[in-house]
Design goal:
- The longest helix is centred in the N-terminal third of the chain and has 17 residues.
- By secondary structure, the chain is mainly beta.
- It has two helices and ten strands.
- β9 and β10 form a beta hairpin.
């Protein structure tokens, strides 16, 4: 799995890399011989879980599995300027993409643009500046597992707190990993 991902990340531009990775992840998900570690199917009741699967020293990318309990999701956030490819390995997720339409001194005006529900076998990408979104497991009783490949180490992002209307205030937020 990592060898195929590494090959896909070796392309030139962010557009080429993310296109290669979407195709690569779709192929990997369709291959019954590829299995994620058992721990990624276990979720926490109080937060979605982030588990590091691989950190590449040569090219700098990281591969994480995220486990979403029923109804769990993220606040509106960015990816700290990194490209990312996300794939649904188990269950279903809902992604709402936002467009940055105006920037004030300490606030951003972000408008929702598209809402997508995606199931097993689907993959999408975010390339800055189009990186603002929420992600959630819309199921009331089933966990979801997603695989995320980032261009670097995603240990911080900006979470956007609502101020008024479509205006949000960015708040740099550290991200942690679950150890199991």
């Amino acid at each position: 799995m990592i060898q195929k991902i590494h090959h896909a990340v070796s392309a030139g531009s962010a557009e080429e890399i993310t296109q290669n990775l979407r195709q690569c992840l779709c192929e990997l998900m369709a291959d019954d011989s590829i299995r994620l570690p058992d721990c990624v199917y276990e979720y926490s009741n109080d937060h979605y879980c982030r588990r590091l699967l691989h950190q590449d020293e040569e090219l700098g990318y990281s591969v994480l599995a995220m486990t979403w309990g029923p109804g769990q999701g993220t606040p509106l956030h960015d990816h700290a300027g990194m490209w990312c490819v996300e794939a649904v390995w188990h269950g279903e997720i809902e992604v709402v993409q936002y467009e940055l339409v105006e920037r004030g001194t300490d606030e951003f005006r972000l408008e929702p643009r598209t809402t997508m529900r995606s199931g097993v076998g689907s993959a999408g990408s975010l390339i800055p500046p189009h990186e603002h979104h929420t992600i959630a497991n819309p199921s009331g009783d089933e966990p979801a597992v997603t695989v995320h490949i980032y261009s670097g180490v995603m240990d911080e992002c900006c979470v956007f707190r609502p101020v008024e209307g479509d205006w949000y205030q960015p708040s740099p937020t550290p991200l942690s990993l679950d150890s199991d």
